[in-house]
Design a protein that fits this description.
Elements (H helix, E strand, L loop, with lengths): L4 E5 L11 H19 L4 E5 L12 E6 L7 H11 L4 E3 L2 H8 L3 H7 L8 E3 L7 H8 L3 E6 L9 E4 L3 H14 L2 E5 L2 H5 L2 E7 L2 E9 L14 E4 L4 H12 L7 E8 L5 E7 L12 H14 L1
Parallel strand pairs: 1-2, 1-3, 3-4
Antiparallel strand pairs: 5-8, 6-7, 6-8, 9-10, 9-12, 10-11, 12-13
Helix pairs in contact: 1-9
Amino acid sequence: MTYDIVILTDKRYLEDSKTDTYKHNVFHEDFLVQEALSKQGLKTLRLAWDDPDFDWTKTKSVLFRTTWDYFDRFNEFSKWLTQVSKVTTLFNSENIIRWNLDKHYLLDLEKAGVRIAKTHFIETGSQITLAQLHKQLNWEETVLKPCISGAARHTYKLSLNNLSDYESVFSDLIVQESMMLQPFQHNIVSEGELSLMVFNGQFTHAVLKKAKIGDFRVQDDFGGTVHSHIPSKEEIVFAENAVKACKELPIYARVDIFTDNDGQIALSELELIEPELWFRNHPKAADVLALSLKSEIQ
């Protein structure tokens, strides 16, 4: 059998769970997408991206949805990405995925006129210390994280009082991968971070993510909560413009924005690979995605 589209997950989320809300939400979200695609008459299958038995020539396309182990298995994922892109169509494309994998893409968006969070990149092999960086940049509170990451992996809140606690961690990390340092954004803690979903350049819905008391990470992995949000016209325009500033227009995107320390809307991240898109909050968005995909593969 040949499929129109294979929905990609990782093997942890192949089955539904009645006892694990997190896994259930992942399964349910993918189900909504699969149902929307089926309503468009498309033959679908849901698989782990590293399925050893599937012949990837047997599908017209693949849709990255919940491949949430890729950043822990990056070398393996990258090789697989190269191979599968030769035999089928990827959504989003390999070109845009590889661009979005590394947070250096923020510099491209900034050059295109998108306001981003202030960011200093530290390249692999650098000999500089955290203390030297903070003195050089004149930043007192910061967040350190890898340029290739997800789910707040190796994300640390730093201050002049705790730099010595993280110098060894940083020195180990920078040998292996590029890192990024950003001023701590106080409004993310007090107000939260917005995620606006954009399909084919058009906004559909948004959520507000808030960190739990005492934390700064909004991901639900760390106790963050998600709330429905009706964005302002300014927020919608910002999100759509950020997506249109990409090197090519993605089929789907999640635009994470916040009010920065200067009181301006700024881009935190642009998620184009496997973002959570909160279809459970707005199921009609799955239909919007399905229509866009149908027009691309038929």
